[in-house]
Amino acid sequence: MIPKDRFLxxxxxxxxxxxxxxxxxxxxxxxxxINFVNNAMLAFWNKDSSVTGMRLEDAVPELAVQPxxxxxxxxxxxxxxxxxxxxxxxxxxxxxxxxxxFDFAYxxxxxxxxxxxxxxxxxxxxxxxIRNSKIIEYKRRKNExxxxxxxxxxxxxxxxxxxxxxxxxxxxxxxxxxxxxxFRLFENENRxxxxxxxxxxxxxxxxxxxxxxxxANDSMLKMWGLSKLEVLNRPxxxxxxxxxxxxxxxxxxxxxxxxxxxxxxxxxxxxLFDFSGSVDGVIIIKYRFEGL
Length: 292
What we know:
Layout: H1 10-19, E1 23-27, E2 34-37, H2 39-45, H3 56-59, H4 68-78, E3 82-93, E4 96-110, E5 116-125, H5 127-198, E6 202-207, E7 212-216, H6 218-224, H7 228-231, H8 236-239, H9 243-258, E8 262-264, E9 267-273, E10 279-286
C-alpha cells in the first residue's frame, strides 16, 4: 500500500494538469464558470490565467455567437458526453479573428446522484490536418474535373484532327499563293524604290512624331547637298536646321493634325496612314524648275 501522505492532493493534480500539453479546462457550474484551465487551452483562447473564475462566454466572448456554449450547457443538463472532430472555431489570433479546427470532448463528471458535478473539456488543434485534407480533396476533385475535360478534349481533338487533315491541302495551296504574292510584292517594292530614286523631283519620307527621314532620293540629296549617311534615319531638324526646318516643321505638323495634303510653292506634303487610319508619316515632294 502507498502511504496516504504519498497521494497527490487535488491542487497538486491540478498543477500537474496545468503543465500538460493537452489543452484542458474544467467548468464547475451550469453557467460554465471556469474552475481550471491549463496553459495549452489558454493559448487556444489567446487569454491568460486571469479568466479563471469567469463564465466561459465572458472570458472568451467570441464563443458566445458560436455553438460551443449551448453544447456545453446541454452536456451539463443531460450528463452526456459530446465529442467532435475537425470542428471549426473562430478565435482571436493576435488582434484578428481566425478560423481554427479542433478535435474536442465535453465530458460530464457526475455525482453519485447522477447530477453533473463539472465538465472536463479537452481539445487538440487539428488545423493542419484539416487543411491537408481539404487540399487532398481539392486535388482529387480537380483531377476528376481534369480527367473529364481531357476526355472531352480527346473527342474534340479527334474531330479537329479530321478537320486539319482536310485543311492541309488548302493550307499548302494558300502557302504557295502567299509565296507568289510575297514575290510579287518584293518585285513591286524594288520597282517602286527604283522609281523613287529616279524621279526628277526631290522626294523624302518623314516618319513618326520624331520626324525621322526614312527615305530620301538622289534628287533630294542633291538639292540638299548631303549624302545618305548624313540624312537617313536622322530627325529632319538635325539634317536641315534653321529656316528650312522652321518652315517645313509647320507644314508637317499641320499635315499630322489635318490628315490632308498640304502644298506650299514648289513643295507637296502628302500624309502617310497606318492601319488604324492615323497619320504616321509624310511624303515631301519638292519640285525645282530652272529659272525659278
